[in-house]
Amino acid sequence: MIQNLLNGKRTVSTLFWAMRYGLLQYSAILKTYDLNSINDDINKLISDGLAKQVDEYQYQLTHKGQIKKDSVMESFYILKNSSYQYDYDVNEFKARVLLAIQSVSEYSFQNKNYYPVKTDMKSAMIVKRWFIENKTKIVEQLKKYLINYLAQIDEHQADIIAQQMIGHEVYGMTNGQLADSMNISNVEAYFMEYDGWVNFINYIINDENTLLHPLVHDIRTLKMNNHAIMTYQQFISGNTLNHISKNLGVKLSTVREHLLEMAIWLPEDKFPYSMIISQDDEKILFESFENQSIDDWQFKQISEKYDIDFFEFRIYQILRSKQDDKQ
Amino acid sequence: MISSDDLKRQLKQWFGFDDFRMGQEEVIKSILEGHDTLGVLPTGTGKTLIYQYVGKMVDGMVVVVSPLISLMQDQVDRMRYLGEKKTVAITSNLSWVDRRRVIKHLNKFKYVYVSPEMLSNTDVLESFQKNNISLFVVDEAHCINQWGPDFRPEYLNLKWIINVLNHPTTLMLTATASNDVISDIKEKIGLPNVDTIKYSTNRPNIALSVDTFTSNEDKNEQLLYLVNKLVKPGIIYFSSKKVANAVCEWIKEKTKLNVEVYHADLDADSRYRIQHQFINDKIDIICATSAFGMGIDKDNIRFVIHYHMPANLESYVQEMGRAGRDGKQSISYILYKEKDEILQYRFIEDTIPSEDMISFFYDHYEQMKDNDFDEKATLINYYLQKGFTKSEVINIFEGRRNELVTSLNQMLGYVKTKGCKREFLLRYFNENFSDHDENCCNGEDTQLQLEKMNLVQESRSLNSRTQNLKWRSIIQTLFSK
Ligand SMILES: [Zn+2]
């Protein structure tokens, strides 16, 4: 489940359990990080006696492992820039901004023959257009922009960002080299890098100097998917689920999934729970699960006795999760 | 008929070289005279220059079919770097949108690289049909015959594709082909008159050494000795990514060298950096997997070490042939621990569908056809779709398995021979060799003298390990004033 979440696979069930575990803001962060290697890492933990396997999907830290974890957590770098609200296509931005820096760097050395940083065609075109439009003073402008930015952030983070830059006879450091040079793990280096780029994206978006705006316009997006937002809007303006299904030409089950997704992402007061769960049903649900932890609720506890469907049950579960979080 | 002088004048003008490398001129002439040509040219002869040159002489498009998808984008980058900006690759790596865009504007491109499976798509093939193709290149033509990680059953379609494209002049290129493979390529490509231009596979400036061990500890010790002693840069090849990673870490720990892994698990960003750091001599040694080559030429590689024995002599010649492209003395090592071949035998069993599997697939096709197929199932399905019967397919794969085992045994023969290694190798490619000397190989009880061959490094590393630079100095170096 966690692997799916980190990879950006957002099924409603992944999202739901992510919410329960308090992991929502990490969705899609490790999209391109090699998660296969995690299995190796887990095996290493087991062979070192730090963890044991409970079942196919669960592992538990041993006592020795717990002590080790506490000591690691003290110094381990944890991602700071995690957002409930936005997705950042950090990898695309990185490739794009590196290509921009490289093309200006090579241009300043009057070199036309070089191997451009790899991007997809769209990014390559965006950078090309940006370069042509700004060509006349681009070298001083970009240099000044970068210096301005790097000078006002943490010195260490500035070094990390600069060490990745690519240009004329400069190839920067890979994630692994960065990690080695700072004597930290690859995952930590990845987090530091990631934080650095997200900061840079936000800086560019909010900066009055619009030089790099064309490079980021599609990089920061809302986490919720567009279809889900459309479903949600139709729902709050009073359409029934059947109407929405007809209006948008999607299956009824999809409409339900969209609403579940929106309930998960939105704060409690932004989602119209009462339009789905009647007061009577809410009372039944409350009483049925009164002394149970939310993760242990089973739909079948109520499905035979009452006329409440799974959708309502899940929505209520989400509502209660949000209320619990606030306490 | 174009004179040699004219060809050379153009060579100087377009590429800045005074002379062609071995075989280039002959192949170019043959193509320009409109002959379908099979060029067997040793590794490092600059095969790209041949079709790039021809491309400049003809009006139409040059289409290059290559089975090495992982290398194709590198080849495109290289062509663009060389000034051929109208170059593109159509592979499954392309996003759907990008692919549509390329196909729609195909006529804007001069050099088009395409993977065999893409060429088997109707929409791709149709757009090629609408264009004037002056030269159709089949790169790594031995893959028609060879069954490796890069084998594509679609290569068997090439005969049909060439016909559909109205039979443009066709050039098949390979670095390694025994006489059997040559006739097999000709048969499968199905063209009536093919000019074969074959040069010796021998690379006299690469000394050949096979070192045998009884334990992995001994093997690792020798590896450590070699990487410290030999002139850098060099490549170490492995059959497994895991072992490549582990050995790379181990060398980093034990030496001050700059060592990096390079294989399919690397993300695009790291691949780019490592490739260019290596080309610019910032990295001493690359630990690579065999299936994963480098698309960009590097002339000054001084050694290639095979930590695991390759699967066949063709692969061996390809991989060790990355050394010494500048013509200077270089060396190839195979580090062989007794019974290493078991890994390779197992690999054959893992790649080739068994009789049971084929039967099961044929008997349960209806229930399975909507599932995603794994690699083996895709292979069986390919034959099923072509109308082969169950027993035919079983025979085909049985035959392939035998061929692979035979190839592996040839490789093992090379490793184990006490005689001249080079003689053994060249005999396999139907060439004679009898000039063994002290720089040739470590067969015939010869001790190779690394000092005498100038293969010993005085300073240990090309560069000290990358240091943490401050951002201000990085920004200053990036932009010239
Ligand atoms: Zn010899």
List keywords for this structure.
A: 327 residues, 3 domains, two-stranded antiparallel sheet, B: 481 residues, alpha/beta, Rossmann fold, 7-stranded parallel β-sheet, 6-stranded parallel β-sheet, binds zinc ion
Report on this structure:
The complex is a heterodimer of chains A (about 325) and B (about 475). In chain A, helix 8 crosses helix 10 (about 185-205), helix 9 packs across helix 10 (about 185-205) and helix 14 (about 250-265) packs parallel to helix 17 (about 310-325). The two termini of chain A are about 25 Å apart. In chain A, strand 1 and strand 2 form a beta hairpin. Chain A has 3 domains: about 1-75, no CATH class; about 85-220, no CATH class; about 270-325. The mean pLDDT of chain A is about 80. Chain A is mostly helical and about 325 residues long. Chain A is built from 17 helices and 4 strands. In chain A, the strands form 2 sheets. In chain A, strands 1-2 form a two-stranded antiparallel sheet. In chain A, strands 3-4 form a two-stranded antiparallel ribbon. Chain A is globular and about 80 Å long. The longest helix of chain A has 21 residues, at about 185-205. Chain B has about 475 residues and is of the alpha/beta class. Chain B folds into 3 domains: about 5-200, P-loop containing nucleotide triphosphate hydrolases (Rossmann fold, 3-Layer(aba) Sandwich); about 205-340 and about 415-480, P-loop containing nucleotide triphosphate hydrolases (Rossmann fold, 3-Layer(aba) Sandwich), CATH 3.40.50; about 345-410, no CATH class. Chain B has 20 helices and 13 strands. In chain B, the strands form 2 sheets. A 7-stranded parallel β-sheet of chain B has the order 3-4-2-5-6-1-7. A 6-stranded parallel β-sheet of chain B has the order 8-13-12-9-11-10, with helices on both faces. In chain B, helix 14 runs antiparallel to helix 18 and helix 15 (about 355-365) packs antiparallel against helix 18. The interface of A and B includes residues 32, 122, 155, 176 and 181 of A. Zinc ion binds near residues 420, 422 and 441 of chain B.
